[in-house]
Amino acid sequence: APSIVIPPVTGLPADFRWGVATSAYQIEGAAAEDGRTPSIWDTFCRKPGAVHNAEHGDVACDHYHRMPADVALIKSLGVDSYRFSVSWPRVQPGGRGPVNPAGLAFYDRLVDELLAAGIDPWVTLYHWDLPQELEDAGGWPLRDTAYRFADYASLVFDKLQDRVDTFTTLNEPWCSAWLGYHVGVHAPGRSNFDDSLFAVHHLLLGHGLATQRMRAASSSGAHTFGITLNMGTADPLTDTVTDREAARRADGMGLRIYLDPLRYGRYPADIVDELASRGSAFPVRDGDLEIISTPFEVLGVNFYFGQDFAGTDLDGNTHDALGEPVVRAVLPDTPRTAMDWPITPERFTQLLVRLHKDYPGLPMVITENGAAFADEPDSSGYVADDNRTAYLASHIGAVADARAQGADVRGYFAWSLMDNFEWAEGYAKRFGIVHVDYASQERTPKQSALWFRDTIGRVRGS
Ligand code: GBH
């Protein structure tokens, strides 16, 4: 029994969509089977010091071999939908050329298994696993990668469109571009500011090209297309002009450089001007912004926490060694998760209401929300995770609060179905609502999973 009191979720409609989410590299394993070639994450994991304990996704949750049992597990949670991603190097080895039938067959079976279980499949086409050959050719900073992505997307769409309604193109292009090509803490581990700007533009172009290709190929004309962005909030730490400018810049580089072109067909002028003053620019060609702003039906929102920003460093300087204005993230002073991320549900409401106001007319679904905690399984593998249950409850409540203020949020996917390969953090950080024993591959629903299942049942009125 929970040792803390979790108030019941109220204010969500009976037809609200409930789901759980995963991604290919984080759960599948079978890294070299049935013709799959390496992705940038297979390579990055071998780079000394890149990933905690030099861990990798060779086996992960062995989902590739345990898929039917995992679908039964998903069904037992009572969700409507399952969000998974397709591994590009599995279905199109090397990232170009013909489809690999053996690789694509896995997703074919997964979709059939989900439909037989009454679960709606939500496909993410790209969750960070770029084929290594395309990175060797230049990666996302290279314009050609956008066209390769559109080709790949249409191969997957052709095979699954008869049974899958919802296709989202990219998961969190900010992470691919910024963490992968500028900060270097994600694959491919490059550190070049201009490369990251080029990656942003080519990711967005790939999204637009893929959306256009899929929509043109849709035999029903009724598919749902979308993109998932990671977003937080960027409040000024204090009400000084310096801090307000820092928050504006953080919001511009984190949120507006994605949503403004997607929705309005233009990059934000303040950011474009500041980039120009340091000699940088997005590599826009004629017609690109029309492609990028091609209409789509759903915005996937991944939220973990909100932040404050200061325009001074800890010594009070307003500019760094390169002469750039300081943009310093300050974590709100609240309890933290095992990732050391602050727990900020009220900022989730703030974000969703702001998205509704600044980008109106765009239905939203929460495609990821969740938390890692230092779980302690009992001898049977059960985890009494009050902390995760409370996190989910407060954030689902935040969604209900945002809806009450007008935000058009249609569903919520918990991250994640099960513990998995948490990128640079390896297996040490556990986001699952189902515990995974990596020695035996045994899955055990945690308290949070049982609470989630019961909450879904109550909201549905069943
Ligand atoms: C998601 O990334 C991923 O889609 C998913 O695969 C992953 O397992 C999950 O979250 C948990 O990490 O401190 O400057 O990085 C979320 C990545 C984390 C990016 C929070 C933005 C805040 C700004 N996000 N981060 S920063």
Automatic annotation (TrEMBL):
Matching entries from Gene3D superfamilies are given as:
Glycosidases (3.20.20.80)
Per the record, its GO cellular-component terms are:
cytosol
Residues reported to bind substrate: 26, 127, 171, 304, 415, 422-423
Which PROSITE patterns does this entry report, sorted A to Z? GLYCOSYL_HYDROL_F1_1 (PS00572), GLYCOSYL_HYDROL_F1_2 (PS00653)
Q: What domain of life?
A: Bacteria
Q: Sorted alphabetically, which keywords does the UniProt record give?
A: Carbohydrate metabolism, Cellulose degradation, Glycosidase, Hydrolase, Polysaccharide degradation
* Pfam families noted in UniProt: Glyco_hydro_1
Return the InterPro entries for the record: GH, GH_1_N_CS, Glyco_hydro_1, Glyco_hydro_1_AS, Glyco_hydro_1_beta-glucosidase
Active site per UniProt: 172, 368
EC number(s) recorded for this UniProt protein: 3.2.1.21
Q: Which reaction does it catalyse?
A: Hydrolysis of terminal, non-reducing beta-D-glucosyl residues with release of beta-D-glucose
MF terms in GO = beta-glucosidase activity
GO BP terms, alphabetized: cellulose catabolic process
User: So what family is this one in?
Assistant: Belongs to the glycosyl hydrolase 1 family.
Q: Which PANTHER family does the record match to this protein?
A: GLYCOSYL HYDROLASE, LP05116P
- Name of the protein this chain belongs to: Beta-glucosidase
